[in-house]
Design brief:
alpha/beta; 8-stranded mixed beta sheet; Enzyme I, Chain A, domain 2; disordered N terminus; 598 residues; binds phosphoenolpyruvate; 13% strand; Glucose Oxidase, domain 1; globular; 4 domains; binds magnesium ion; TIM Barrel
Length: 598
């Protein structure tokens, strides 16, 4: 629940704090732009006698604006789908002008002295209820019209923007929304979007991951913020501690100014080790890589001090467009990344669509449990043309640099065997065509399902490396949706089950002489780094923005203390205790990394 301090009865200009889950560090301040439709009920705001005439004006203006919106939508639908499809909007216009409805709303505002959005929603709800109970189909359909129109009017009263082309924002703003999909987040232009805040979401949702990749502050799980905040209001967003401060006072701004200065001092310290190796105090070399979403992200990999790419999430090549990327286009993207970082490795992960990442033009039927459904390798093994195009592009790009290929979401040996066989088929095809392709391409799999960790021995015999996808491994092991803030407290990276699965994976990998990395968000959390190293992980791959922090910690830890910690964790029954122990060690050896954390 957002923490509201001071209380709601204070004047609207007062400072208010909302608490959520911090997902991308940084502090920004600016004008709010609320996106998307209102969901659920709006707040009942009491008005003074003097405010009533202004409220009626506000209502009239919102009705007029809604009328313009509906007329505009009707025009667009007529142009694209035809007059018949657009007729529905005539019913919306009629509902909007219904004299009984409007006079009832006006009466409620004046008599009960409540805000117009609350009055409209309450009156409309009664209409909808009565109409939905009618026997007549026609009347029942009117209920849907009233619902639609109500949402539009309430949005206009709250200043929410339903349809904004995020690529065309001209003024700097702080985006607030109920939720943002990864494809929307990927469109955000960081020159104008200062940061974003959402009602829902978790630390490892792809939207949060994208925020870290863009390097903009972000807070999720703010629950009702998008309903309580209005476009145009001034706010400050603290992505370090997960806070949104509405109308910050001078004192708050001063305190945040100090926080930003302290963070700048830390950044300075981190810059000093930029070109230093990721090596523990007692000399153990760790491969530290970065995660990317686009080939054009490679400069940030180099700038972060990472030694290559441990995870290239290729789905963004497919998401931000209306058709499928061709083999040539993909080849150019993978080749560019490999060439830019050569001789450092670039681990290209094959398409991981599904879960919370969708491509509208593929028209995949909606699923009840998309994270447990037709996702990643499952999709690719059935959509062979799409898979073939990508495998050919990766094989061709491997000539140009140190490319490695990785399959996502492997849950059984048959899947791996099928994928490997198909890869060989694609290689043979290219050879036959005389197209250059790498003779030896390292092939790995993500360990992100509990089943993969449990059969890691069998998988390791057929692979060159593993990369633990902790984001999914945690959600699948603990049955806690990574995108759902309600179960965020159950989503525990240090749960004993996770510790043991990581250890099993490492042991199986090492038995078969292959390396094992972690490319989920666990790898980017400095607190967890000693634990992962102690468990025997060879590589860590994190968002470029967090790589320097991870390196700072690696350079301050000694392997015996990391191994002791892992040993403790492997025998501990409590995730909270494991977290406390690894946090204590991380804070002790690298206090400056944690100075301002909540
Ligand atoms: C993971 O699951 O940890 C992972 C790295 O893959 P993604 O976050 O893209 O699902
Ligand atoms: Mg995953």
């Amino acid at each position: 629940m957002p923490e509201v301090a001071p209380s709601r009865n204070l004047p609207p200009k007062g400072e208010r704090h909302f608490r959520g889950i911090p997902v991308s560090g940084g502090v920004c301040r600016g004008r709010i732009l609320v996106l998307g439709r209102v969901r659920g009920l709006v707040e009942r705001r009491e008005l003074t006698e003097g405010e009533l005439p202004g409220e009626i004006n506000r209502l009239e203006k919102a009705l007029l604006d809604t009328r313009h919106d509906v007329v505009e939508v009707k025009r667009r639908v007529t142009a694209s789908l035809g007059q018949k499809e657009a007729d529905i909007f005539d019913a919306h216009l009629l509902a909007l002008e219904d004299p009984v409805l409007i006079s009832e709303v006006t009466r409620l505002v004046m008599e009960e002295k409540v805000c117009a959005e609350y009055a409209f929603q309450s009156v409309a709800a009664k209409y909808v209820e009565a109409l939905s109970r009618a026997d007549d189909d026609f009347l029942r359909e009117r209920a849907a019209d009233i619902r639609d129109v109500t949402a539009r009017v309430v949005n206009n009263l709250l200043g929410h923007q339903e349809e904004v082309d995020l690529r065309r924002l001209s003024e700097p703003c702080l985006i607030v929304a109920h939720e943002l999909g990864p494809s929307t987040t990927a469109q955000l232009d960081k020159k104008v979007v200062l940061g974003f805040a959402t009602d829902v979401g978790g630390r490892t949702s792809h939207t949060a991951i994208m925020a870290r990749s863009l390097g903009i502050p972000a807070v999720v799980g703010l629950q009702t913020a998008s309903q309580e905040l209005h476009t145009g209001e001034q706010a400050l967003l603290d992505g370090y501690n997960g806070a949104l401060v509405l109308n910050p006072t001078d004192q708050t701004l001063f305190e945040y100014g100090q926080l930003v200065r302290r963070k700048a001092t830390l950044e300075e310290k981190l810059r000093e080790i930029l070109r230093q190796p990721a090596i523990t105090l007692d000399g153990q070399r760790v491969l530290l890589s970065a995660n990317i979403e686009h080939a054009s992200d490679t400069p940030s990999v180099t700038a972060s001090g990472a030694e290559g790419v441990g995870l290239f999430r290729t789905e963004y090549l497919y998401i931000e467009r209306q058709d499928l990327p061709s083999e040539e286009e993909q080849f150019q993207a993978y080749r560019a990344a490999a060439a830019a970082l050569k001789p450092q490795p670039v681990v290209v992960r094959t398409l991981d669509l599904g879960g919370d990442k969708f491509v509208s033009h593929l028209q995949v039927a909606p699923e009840i449990n998309p994270f447990l459904g037709w996702r990643a390798i499952r999709f690719c093994l059935e959509q062979k043309d799409i898979f073939r195009t990508q495998l050919r592009a990766i094989l061709r790009a491997s000539v140009e640099g140190n490319v490695k290929l990785m399959y996502p979401m492997i849950s059984g040996l048959e899947e791996l065997n099928q994928a490997n066989a198909f890869l060989e088929h694609c290689r043979a095809e290219l050879r036959q065509e005389g197209v250059p392709c790498g003779d030896k391409l390292d092939v790995g799999a993500m360990v992100e399902t509990p089943s993969a960790a449990l059969i890691a021995d069998a998988l390791a015999q057929r692979l060159d490396f593993f990369s633990i996808g902790s984001n999914d491994l945690i959600q699948y092991t603990l049955a806690a949706d990574r995108t759902n803030e309600r179960v965020a407290h159950l989503y525990a990276p240090t749960h004993p089950a996770i510790v043991r699965l990581v250890r099993m994976t490492v042991e199986a990998a090492h038995r078969h002489h292959i390396w094992v990395g972690v490319c989920g968000e666990m790898a980017g959390d400095p607190v967890l780094v000693p634990l992962l190293l102690g468990l025997g992980v060879d590589e860590l791959s994190a968002a470029p923005a967090t790589v320097p922090h991870v390196k700072y910690l690696i350079r301050r830890v000694k392997m015996p203390e990391a191994r002791d910690l892992a040993e403790f964790a492997l025998h501990c029954e409590s995730g909270a205790e494991i977290l406390a122990r690894t946090t204590a060690l991380a804070r002790e050896i690298a206090p400056s990394l944690f100075e301002d954390n909540a």
